[in-house]
């Protein structure tokens, strides 16, 4: 169900991106503003990133197979990295446009319709960015969250550009148009760097957050009655899945069935508190105890 929702959202992102792209290029065509042109260029990246998110969500939804026994969740991180790279390329295109504007010093034309089109585009992007981020976090989709964060950055830069273009028209300071384009480019560049950094962390198997680790330790401690201790807890995040493994020490005389019951109880508690958890427990006899790690209550 969640996958179907993600695919529908990805399709809607493409459609909305194309509409916003048309509105922004219309605003640029009516005003001739380099800053609005840079804003429109960023929207091309939005559309491209929506395509990347669609492909990533579809691929990540494929079940595990013999070649990928742990699933395909990391495909979303590759998409997020690709979006980050495209954002950086868009920033370079914006800097080029700003430089041309500085050299030629053309003044934008006052067009209420052009400014209105850009305001409408920013409003549409703002509403869709909020929805994407909320749903992406709910279904734990890095690709959708990345798309939402990028769109929100686009909204902020669009509002800044609009304010600047109005100031250019009111004051006649044409240099402001190119300066604004440069500021937009820097904002876009920072956004791209943030996405790449975050996504590379996912590809490098970063551990779960401190809050999640504390939750896991608490469940092991509370639900591990009958065991002696747990140690060597490790976690890694891959898309919607949190991989968890640790060693559970039990009495050497305990039966396999009893040890298995303890493991089932711990797994059920952790899975309830950590959605998407995939847990591996290595049971050890008491002489393997390290007398450190997680104390079982």
TrEMBL record:
- List the record's Gene Ontology CC terms alphabetically: plasma membrane
Any idea where this protein resides? Answer: Cell membrane
Query: Known InterPro entries for this protein?
Result: Cation_efflux, Cation_efflux_CTD, Cation_efflux_CTD_sf, Cation_efflux_TM, Cation_efflux_TMD_sf, CDF_Transporter
Kindly give the membrane topology term recorded for this protein.
Multi-pass membrane protein
Q: Keyword Cell membrane, does the record have it?
A: yes
Please give the biological process terms from Gene Ontology that the record holds: intracellular zinc ion homeostasis
Residues covered by the Cation efflux protein cytoplasmic domain: 211-286
UniProt domain Cation efflux protein transmembrane: residue ranges:
11-204
Q: Which Pfam families does this one have?
A: Cation_efflux (PF01545), ZT_dimer (PF16916)
Question: Where does this protein chiefly localize?
Answer: membrane
Q: Which residue ranges run through the membrane?
A: 9-31, 43-61, 77-98, 110-131, 151-173, 179-196
Q: Which UniProt keywords apply?
A: Cell membrane, Membrane, Transmembrane, Transmembrane helix, Transport
Q: Indicate whether Cell division appears among the record's keywords.
A: no
GO molecular function, one example?
cadmium ion transmembrane transporter activity
Origin: domain of life: Bacteria
Q: Which PANTHER family match?
A: MITOCHONDRIAL METAL TRANSPORTER 1-RELATED (PTHR43840)
Give the UniProt family note.
Belongs to the cation diffusion facilitator (CDF) transporter (TC 2.A.4) family.
* The protein, known as: Protein p34
Q: Which organism is it from?
A: Roseibium alexandrii (strain DSM 17067 / NCIMB 14079 / DFL-11) (Labrenzia alexandrii)
Q: What is the lineage of its organism?
A: Bacteria, Pseudomonadati, Pseudomonadota, Alphaproteobacteria, Hyphomicrobiales
């Amino acid at each position: 169900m969640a996958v179907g929702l993600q695919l529908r959202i990805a399709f809607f992102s493409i459609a909305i991106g194309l509409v916003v792209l048309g509105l922004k290029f219309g605003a640029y065509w009516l005003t001739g503003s380099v800053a609005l042109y840079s804003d429109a260029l960023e929207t091309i990246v939005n559309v491209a990133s929506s395509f990347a998110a669609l492909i990533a969500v579809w691929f990540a939804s494929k079940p595990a197979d013999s070649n990928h026994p742990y699933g395909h969740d990391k495909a979303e991180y590759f998409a997020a990295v690709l979006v980050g790279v495209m954002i950086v390329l868009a920033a370079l295109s914006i800097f080029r446009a700003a430089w041309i504007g500085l050299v030629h010093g053309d003044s934008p034309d006052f067009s209420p319709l052009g400014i209105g089109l850009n305001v409408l585009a920013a409003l549409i992007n703002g509403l869709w960015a909020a929805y994407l981020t909320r749903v992406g976090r709910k279904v734990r989709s890095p690709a959708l969250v990345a798309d939402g964060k990028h769109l929100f950055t686009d909204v902020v830069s669009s509002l800044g550009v609009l304010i600047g273009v109005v100031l250019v028209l009111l004051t006649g300071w044409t240099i402001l148009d190119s300066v604004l384009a440069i500021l937009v480019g820097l904002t876009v560049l920072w956004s791209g760097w943030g996405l790449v950094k975050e996504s590379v962390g996912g590809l490098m198997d970063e551990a779960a957050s401190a809050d999640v680790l504390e939750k896991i330790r608490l469940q092991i401690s509370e639900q591990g009655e009958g065991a002696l201790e747990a140690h060597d807890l490790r976690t890694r995040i891959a898309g919607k899945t949190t991989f968890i493994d640790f060693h559970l020490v039990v009495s050497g005389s305990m039966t396999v069935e009893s040890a298995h019951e303890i493991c089932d109880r711990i797994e059920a508690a952790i899975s309830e508190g950590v959605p998407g958890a995939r847990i591996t427990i290595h049971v050890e006899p008491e002489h393997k105890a390290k007398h450190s790690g997680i104390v079982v209550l």
